[in-house]
């Protein structure tokens, strides 16, 4: 019995957050991001998708809606799962990276050199984000045993899932590319998980 989970990173966000730090910050898609999700929908058109799930962030919800409409779903609204949200950068949210480096030089250096060890002030750590994402992924996989489901989420969340499947250490997650609009696939055969597709950009 094969359970197939498609993991899609949301499309490119609006230009207003370019060069800014954003995780919990809510922002919609750019025109390019919408086109990316339309292409993703065409890529998955032949899949027998039982359900579509989304992070609660606007960029993911909008991406999931475009995907649902492209797949001809009766209800274009995906099921929102809060635990699939991106990491919360806390006090860094909405700040330019140069500003963060100037105001928090030691923490910024740690972030750049060992990002998965940082506890963001007022926010989360990678370990906290990883725990909730994997918990949600395992619950979804069990609920859709033998079916095909889609999760629209974020780069950090998807990397956490893929890294565990590959047996990678947490600090190695940034060796996994995750472009905007990227498609990934995990197949679980009798509980054994395999990464069958990684970072495909239609």
Short description:
With 202 residues, this protein is an alpha/beta fold. 36% of the residues lie in helices and 19% in strands. The protein has six helices and six strands; from the N terminus they run βαβαβαααβαββ.
What does this 3D model show about the protein?
This protein has 202 residues and is α/β, with parallel strands linked by helices. It has one domain: 3-Layer(aba) Sandwich (Rossmann fold), CATH 3.40.50.1240. Helix content is 36%, strand content 19%. It is built from six helices and six strands; from the N terminus they run βαβαβαααβαββ. Strands 3-2-4-1-5-6 form a six-stranded mixed β-sheet. Helix 1 packs across helix 2, helix 3 crosses helix 4 and helix 5 packs across helix 6. The longest helix has 18 residues. The chain is globular, with a radius of gyration of 17 Å. It starts with a strand and ends with a strand. The model has no long low-confidence stretch (mean pLDDT 95).
